[in-house]
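note to self — DONT lose this again. spent like an hour looking for the file last time. sequence + predicted structure for the chain T wanted, 829 res
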Amino acid sequence: MKTINFGIDLGTTNSLIAKYNDGEIEVFKNPLGQKATLASAVAFRGKRILVGDKARNLLEKDPLNVFTCFKRKMGTTDAYFVENLKKEITPIELSSFVLQELKNFIHTGEEINEVVITIPSSFDTIQSNATKTAGIEAGFKKVYLLQEPIAASLAFANKNNLQLEEEKKWLVYDYGGGTFDVALLQIDEREMNVLDNEGDNFLGGMDFDNLIIEKLVIPQLEKELKEENLWEKFKQKENTYQKLYFELLYRAEEAKKELSRFETTEIEIDIDDKDFYTSITINRKDFNSLIEPSVQRTITLAKKILESNGCRAKDIEKVILVGGSTLIPYVKERIQSSLGIEIDSSVEPTTAVGIGAAYYAGTKIAQIEETKQEPSINPIISATPEYEIIYQKNSQDIEELISVIPPENIANGSYRITRLDGGFDTGLVTITDEISCFVDLLEGQKNRFNLKIYEPNGTLVYENNNITIIHGKYNIQGQLLPHDICLEIDDIDYGVTRLEAIFNKNAVLPLKRTIYKTATKNILLGSEEKLQINIVEGDDGSLPSSGLSIGFIEISGGKLEKDLIKGTDIEIDISVSESRDLDVTIFLSSCEQEFRDSFKPTQRSISISKIEKEIYTALNNIEKEIKNNDGEYELLAKFQKIRESLIELQIELSLCNENDSTDTKFKIDNNKQILIKEFDQLTRFKALDSNISEYQLKLAMVKNELSTISNEFYEKKLEKILLNEREVLNSGNKYLIKSKIKELEQLDNELFNQTSENFISPFLYYKSITEYKESKRAEKLIIEGDKALEKQQYDVVKHVVYQLHALLPEHLRNDKKVNFNDQDKTGLS
């Protein structure tokens, strides 16, 4: 079976295409200049579109028609206005031009229908879908996505021909032009697995370029030009300095590269229409101070991933450096000094991701038949339909399993598998139930096998000599889901909707699950009431507004064939492919109807006013927590730190407007989400402590009640409640713990009701109350209760208590329900 073989690193600054060819990787070079990487830049010159270094070199001459770093805006509604075309171009379209240009690097004339394209591990579903769409627009018929740290680790592991005798852990530190990723890997002599990853989609080398302009260049320009707020003017989409801003971005990037080799460099500034020229000297020390907070952010994420996985520095064999920003000496110094782990920079940082993508592509079976067949050693005789052959393309074992699924029953026929070097031969094997056998592999070599299948009469019906297994090469066992995928459901007890995880972060893709929910409202045939299925990328247990909606199905009464009655079951099938396609099927058993949809959202809008409102709300919530803090000084300090950071974002946002041509608002929104998540975690753990204490108190009460009555029926009920106690208490989910508390309360009520004497105290309490809805009837009940109490008729006292409780006014009842209107409900619980 043919594999995809082609892998692409679609980078913020540079891109690359490579091919897997029988265990070897070929990195294709630009026919013009023979450079392996292609600058991710697009220029519009009249009717011509230039891509790559030719486009990037025009940044100084024609910056209003040259576009770079558009990967940072993938999945957003932002677009770039092209002066020469007088129209806007989206990040998806610009990315497709880069991908098309990479196809021109292929000198073999092969038709490429399928390809693997890399993405940052922290890309959300919308950004992932935008990348796939760019691939389709570039002419690929099918696009597979691979997370960049995984690609880098494949490049490293397969390049070094590892001889591992025991299990190792690595940290892949990927600091690129626009994004940062860090991944924790586990590897042994047989396989490699990703354990966890973290990242920031707005943390990369291009931020250094902007910092050079804002902090080092602008102050001097303001003095010499005698202007104020020059940085804000630079960032506007239409301004007199826009051309100069893009010129400076180009020169700042060059200066950044020079400072990796020299202690000082210069940036020359020439403004023709102002007859102005100056030169600004930048030294490495000032540059290092400038980028220190950004580098510290990467260190924080690296430490976070170690801490959350219970790893210490001594548990990690090495930190593998990937990405152009790791070439900066200061970055290497900080990683070494902060993490205290050996650094390995043996893999080429600018090509590792593309090479790893090609390794991965070499293991993926192509699903689209090529119109141009590759030559093989011998012709392949094949009956139609095709036989399905299953085996590992890369293996660390000295033998590997080959299985064959024939298109029809060929029992009593035979098969034969031989290694083409003559070193292995099964001989003729009679086919009974299946075709499956282990084959021997030559260590460290490419092993080609020939498969022949015969009918019972000896007629050859199928031959395939393209079965290739590379010994000593690693493959990845699966990509991780970077965020929880949740369903928005109704929380009837609290009168709100919340998120409930369907798939948790770090689950291995692809994923599929069937869940069963209950309708929380009636949706009558033909009515305007709606059942809302909202799939959200967010944190389990959090508010839906804190996540990103990636799939929404609305079923109104007008779409139903029967009434959907409250309390009936709703079956939901949800699947997420390895490339993050989302498929949802809803079955309403009471209506005997099925609804399904596939979701591939590629855009989300971000407005400054929305960000402003969310920061304002978060600050109010933090103020409340600080005000109600009861002496927990460590927690208070963390709240204060988040508060100060949000205020800084608020100030930065006030200086930004919708006309800002940079990605400032996206960075602010990204940092806002990180801070709100940190705050949510702190308050969640605080609430968890309270919930766990309440659970333990209620459990003690139930056990005490049971000890007095010794009832086997209720003892078994308690055993059932405690069956998964440890998992619930360790889940970090307050809703699961609250559901356990509710179960204990119900059991406690049942135990309380078993003994009529228990109702003496409630009766005496109700007797003291003077306010009832029907005062005369209450008086009669109290007299009746007094008599029963005197005669020790406790069953009568029990019934009197029930009736008095029903007569209590709403404000005195402790069973008052939270108001939750049907129109505010999703319809699911």
